[in-house]
Design goal:
Number of helices: 10
Low-confidence stretches: none
Structural class: alpha/beta
Largest sheet: 7 strands, mixed
Radius of gyration: 20 Å
Order of helices and strands: EEEHEEEEHHEHEHEHEHEHEHEHE
Distance between the termini: 12 Å
Bound molecules: NADP nicotinamide-adenine-dinucleotide phosphate
CATH topology of the largest domain: Quinone Oxidoreductase, Chain A, domain 1
Helix content: 25-40%
Mean pLDDT: 97
CATH superfamily of the largest domain: Medium-chain alcohol dehydrogenases, catalytic domain
Length: 325
């Protein structure tokens, strides 16, 4: 099969397509998927640089999220059969390839309403969005929610959940196109996080009351500002951060503010919450309001460009996918 392989850590150029990789065999509890599309996440670009080199080995094929068709199943797999349309959150062999292996507990049936590109946008983005908004921040209908960094793949997913669950949604983006996309996906108020004074505009939009919940994509830049605009009893749920932050903790006292971290756990510990999340995603797809937005698509050969886009592109527009014909 063709698969992207990294044989040395480095920049996007180390992502190379190898034409003759052996198709892996699924073990007892594993599923071999013929990949239709693979999702691109920022974490794969961080890892490609060698950030986690001590715990990873080369050659390495990136990718957690894909959608495609079940090709072969291990002996103990009971919930899937060859031919099923599926999506993943987790892969043993990496999804930037024509075939990928996932364990059965990381595979979910893909409803007919979504094609493989949309399916490749469900795993990390929608699982993380629900984990942050509902399971960690415990946001409720009627509350105001700021999605700080709403134009990317996790941001769009968070907007859709917040709108559907009856929250008043505010979102930010860094370009006019991103702001338009944020508006179309449920934000009542949209701001440009590259413009000075936008946090004042957010306070004005909430009539000076502040925001109940902030879902934060870049905490090293925004955490202090978030604490300033939080309403009493407010919560900042940190999804993304690329460095350190200086904050004034005293701001948290009078308002009894909370800062929490977010991750979607794997293994036995994460199974219960992941089951809940996949059911919520399925319900949203059946009802028609979960609609992943694909901003850019590339072939496997375009993986270097996709990694350049996700870290240094001009502005996010939903999900980046690699299509695998
Ligand atoms: N904790 C977890 O388990 C977990 C899971 C998934 C993702 N993440 C992390 O969460 C972040 C978002 O992931 P993603 O997949 O949505 O990435 P993405 O598609 O690349 O989107 C990045 C988002 O950050 C926004 N952004 C850029 N500068 C910003 C600023 N100054 N303030 C606020 N937002 C800003 C971008 O807006 P513009 O491009 O429009 O400027 C865009 O909306 C990444 O750091 C990722 O590594 C963490």
């Amino acid at each position: 099969m063709r698969a992207v392989r990294v044989t040395e850590w480095g920049g996007p150029e180390v992502l190379k397509v190898h034409p003759d990789v052996t198709i892996p065999e699924p073990q007892v509890n594993q599923i071999l998927i013929k990949v239709g599309a693979s999702g691109v996440n920022p974490v794969e670009a961080y890892k490609r640089t060698g950030r986690d080199a001590k715990s990873m080995s080369l050659p390495w094929t990136p990718g957690t999220d894909c959608a495609g068709t079940v090709h072969k199943i291990g002996l103990a797999v009971t919930n899937f059969k060859p031919g099923d349309r599926v999506y993943t959150f987790g892969s043993v062999t990496g999804t930037y390839a024509e075939y990928a292996i996932s364990t059965e507990d990381n595979v979910y049936l893909l409803p007919d309403q979504l094609d493989f590109k949309a399916g490749a946008a469900l795993g990390v983005p929608y699982f993380t969005a629900y984990r942050a908004l509902i399971q960690r921040a415990r946001a409720e209908a009627g509350q105001t929610v700021l999605v700080h960094g709403a134009s990317g793949s996790v941001g769009i997913a968070t907007l859709q959940f917040a709108k559907a669950y009856g929250m008043t949604v505010l979102g930010t983006a860094g370009t006019p196109e991103g702001m338009q996309l944020v508006r179309e996906n449920g934000a009542k108020f949209v701001f440009n996080h590259r413009q000075d004074g936008y946090m004042d505009e957010i306070m004005t939009a909430t009539s000076g009351e502040g925001v109940d919940v902030i879902i934060e994509m870049l905490a090293d830049v925004n955490l202090q500002k978030d604490l300033e605009i939080l309403a009493p009893d407010g919560v900042v749920a940190v999804i993304g951060s690329r460095g350190t932050a200086e904050i004034k903790p005293a701001l948290m006292l009078g308002k009894e503010s909370t800062i929490i971290g977010v991750t979607v756990r794997g293994g036995v510990k994460g199974q219960k919450s992941r089951k809940v999340i996949s059911a919520a995603i399925n319900a949203g797809i059946q009802s028609g309001w979960i609609k992943p937005h694909i901003g850019k698509e590339f072939s496997l050969e375009g993986a270097p460009q996709a990694h350049h886009e996700i870290i240094d592109g001009p502005g996010a527009l939903g999900r980046i996918v690699l299509t695998v014909p």
